[in-house]
């Protein structure tokens, strides 16, 4: 299963429509995870044309975006937790383990800083932002390959020069 992970698209200010480099990854997706700060629901409609979308609400999301604050789902046997803001960097792994005790992977956003970290039997993954890189060198998305309950590959890839 191929999963594209997005966060912090900040439409319509930063995302007017799906950027072509992002769309190139979405075309082969089996599922899309969006870790919040979509800002307007029309982005979810746009993403849904590529694959099923799972989304959590971010601190900048408008009232038209109907989404939970957290989400737990299973993708090809892999248990995934989602939240927008994982809190301060200090203590993040144990805090996410407590928040999602059954998860193999927790996807989050908010900081716009790409991250892939493992500890305490948990992997935490922030794809960064494809459209609002802030102090990062590139806009980024995450790509996951899941097979029979195992995360075979997790990559963060640049989608801006």
Describe this structure in words.
With about 160 residues, the protein is an alpha/beta fold. It has one domain: Purple Acid Phosphatase, chain A, domain 2. It is built from three helices and ten strands. It has a five-stranded mixed sheet with strand order 3-2-1-9-10, covered by helices on one side. A five-stranded mixed sheet has the order 4-5-6-8-7, with helices on one face. The radius of gyration is 14 Å and the shape is globular. The mean pLDDT is about 95.
Q: What is the strand and helix layout of this fold?
A:
Blueprint (H helix, E strand, L loop, with lengths): L1 E5 L13 H7 L4 E4 L7 H7 L4 E3 L14 E6 L2 E6 L8 H8 L5 E3 L7 E5 L2 E5 L13 E8 L2 E9 L3
Parallel strand pairs: 1-2, 2-3, 5-6, 6-8
Antiparallel strand pairs: 1-9, 4-5, 7-8, 9-10
CATH top level class name = Alpha Beta
**Do you know the CATH architecture?**
4-Layer Sandwich
Shape: globular
Largest β-sheet summary: 5 strands, mixed
Q: Which structural class best describes the helix and strand composition?
A: alpha/beta
Strand proportion? 25-35%
Count helical runs.
3
CATH homology superfamily name: Metallo-dependent phosphatases
Strand order of the largest sheet: 3-2-1-9-10
**How would you spell out the order of helices and strands?**
EHEHEEEHEEEEE
Q: State the distance separating the first and last CA atoms.
A: 28 Å
The CATH topology is what?
Purple Acid Phosphatase, chain A, domain 2
- Please mark out the parts with pLDDT under 50 across 5 or more consecutive residues, or reply none: none
| Annotation, overall tally of beta strands | 10
């Amino acid at each position: 299963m191929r999963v594209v992970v997005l966060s912090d698209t900040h439409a319509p200010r930063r995302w007017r429509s799906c950027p072509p480099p992002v769309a190139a990854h979405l075309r082969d997706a089996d599922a899309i995870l969006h870790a919040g700060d979509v800002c307007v629901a029309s982005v979810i409609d746009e993403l849904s044309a590529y694959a099923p979308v799972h989304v959590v609400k971010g601190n900048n999301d408008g009232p038209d975006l109907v989404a939970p604050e957290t989400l737990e789902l299973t993708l090809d046997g892999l248990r995934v937790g989602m939240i927008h803001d994982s809190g301060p960097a200090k203590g993040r792994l144990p805090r996410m383990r407590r928040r999602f005790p059954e998860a193999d992977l927790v996807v989050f956003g908010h900081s716009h800083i790409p991250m892939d970290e493992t500890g305490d039997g948990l992997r935490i993954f922030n794809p960064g932002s494809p459209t609002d890189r802030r102090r990062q060198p590139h806009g980024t998305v995450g790509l996951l390959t899941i097979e029979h309950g195992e995360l075979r590959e997790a990559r963060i890839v640049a989608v801006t020069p």
